Each structure stands twice: as C-alpha cells, then as structure tokens.
Amino acid sequence: xxxxxxxxxxxxxxxxxxxxxxxxxxxxxxxxxxxxxxxxxxxxxxxxxxxxxxxxxxxxxxxxxxxxxxxxxxxxxxxxxxxxxxxxxxxx
Length: 92
Description:
Helix content is 71%, strand content 0%. It is an all-alpha fold and 92 residues long. It is elongated.
C-alpha cells in the first residue's frame, strides 16, 4: 500500500512548507518555547497533585462516574446502587 503524502492539504500551509524547504529555514509555529516547557511541567505535576488533594470519597465518586460513562450507565443508578450497598453492609 502506498504511503500518503505528509504535505498539508491547506494551500497556504503547503506553500509555507515549500518555501521553508526551499530556503532551509523552519517555519515559525508561533509558540514560545519557554511557555511550552512551563505548560508541560505543570501538566506533569497536575495529576499527581490533584490525586493527593482528593479525599477517598471524592476519588470513589469520580471512579464511579467514569465507570458509568465507560459502560454507558446512568451515573445516578450507580450512586443509588453504591448507597444501598453501604446501607446493606451496615445492617447487623
């Protein structure tokens, strides 16, 4: 199977890539490298810091909501089932 061209379909982007290739100068993507590095650094810290701040109850709520979305179940139905299970477990 032949490989597809990696050239952009947009005519302006194609023209810019052709000029960059002909002149040997890379096209400026408009991003500040320092800002990109800071954004990446914050992203690496974010999930871990959020997990440390969450209470076990909130983590459970988030996990139940994710499971309901994954299995296409109404999240209220999952909450009701979990609540009734807690009540059943507490009964003597």
